[in-house]
Every structure is written in structure tokens, then in C-alpha cells.
Amino acid sequence: MRTFAFTLAAMGLSLAAFGADPNANSATNNNPNNNQKVLAATTFRASKLTGLNVRNTAGEKLGTVEDLVVDVRTGKISYIAMGVGGVLGIGEKLFAIPYGELKFDHGKDEMFFVLDMPAEKIKAAPGFDKRDWPNFADPNWSQHIDKYYQQAETKKTTTTTTTTTGSSKP
């Protein structure tokens, strides 16, 4: 846990908050400007990722990370379970968001994930109840979810170009 994408001190966070040893790499302490560590984020404890907000590119809050789904063969996160709506967890709907669709970002006072999708598209996504999780090992289920988000990505990036040609009359 030696690298972070932002200055933790500027965010008022310490390395200890993320389970890192602040003395693990003393070479990073040699900043002549302020002796603050500047590191790039590549790893976090899972408990620090749950509860983070998920926003779209317009900055609108889409939901909150409720849980992480890990592929035990690769050790990589396959999906986040994003909670949307409800009050105190009652009436909340969960959505499995493919982890590759998310980007980790931060503002001045918070860390969050960004999903480049409008809120309406999320509300139309296949979701599930937190008391009735889908079988993530079912290839039909994962293909269905992945296809939904891939189609959303394709529609977002597909552009139509129209070319007009003028004709000249003799």
C-alpha cells in the first residue's frame, strides 16, 4: 500500500486510516517542499471501499457501494453491489455494476467511484433485493448483466456522422 493517487494530507487522511505502514517507504518522506507523502492509489482495504458513493460524470450521486463481488480464481473484483434508494436500507435496490465500468476518483473531502451513466439508465438496469442475491457463478446471469452495461457503453460512444454533398447545377 505504498501508492495513492492523491495527497492524503490534503484530504486530512493518514496512511494508518488505510491500513498502511507510514514508515514502509522512507524514500517518499524526502519531499523538500513539505515533508508530506504523495503517493498513488492502487490498493485499498475492502472495508474502505464499501460505503463510498458512486457518482455519474455529471456529479450526481447514483448510489453507494454496499459490497464487493470477488472472483476467487483471479482475486479481482468482478462487481460492486451498488445500493440505490430506500431509507435506512429499507426499500433499497441493489445493482451489480461491472467493476471495469467504474473509475476511482476523489474530491477535496471524499473518495468515490464514477460510473459514466445517467441515473435513468441505472434505474432501468437489472437489480436485486439485498435479501435475495443472484447466483454470481451462473454464467447466464453474469452475461446478462455484462451485456446490459456493454450496450449502455456502446450506445454512449456510438456517434452518427452525416455527410451531405451539394450538387451544382450547370
The shape is globular
Total strands = 9
Radius of gyration: 21 Å
Specify the CATH architecture of the largest domain: Roll
Mean pLDDT score, rounded?
73
What percent of residues adopt helix (DSSP H or I)? 10-25%
At CATH level 3, the topology of the largest domain is: SH3 type barrels
> How large is the share of residues in beta strands?
25-35%
Structural classification = alpha+beta
Low-confidence stretches: 1-33, 158-168
Largest sheet: 7 strands, mixed
Supply the number of helical segments: 4
Name the helix and strand elements from N-terminus to C-terminus, one letter apiece.
EHEHEEEEEEHEH
Question: Quick one: CATH class of the largest domain?
Answer: Mainly Beta
Q: What spatial order of strands do you see in the largest sheet?
A: 7-8-3-4-5-6-9
Rounded to the nearest angstrom, the distance between the terminal CA atoms is 73 Å
Which superfamily, in CATH terms, is the homologous superfamily of the largest domain? PRC-barrel domain
Q: Could you say how many structural domains there are in total?
A: 2
Structure write-up:
The protein is built from 4 helices and 9 strands. By secondary structure, the chain is an alpha+beta fold. The protein folds into 2 domains: 1-43, no CATH class; 45-156, PRC-barrel domain (SH3 type barrels). A 7-stranded mixed β-sheet has the order 7-8-3-4-5-6-9. A two-stranded antiparallel sheet has the order 1-2. A hairpin with a 4-residue loop joins strand 4 and strand 5. The longest helix has 19 residues, at 139-157. It is globular and about 40 Å long. The chain starts with a strand and ends in a 13-residue tail after the last helix.
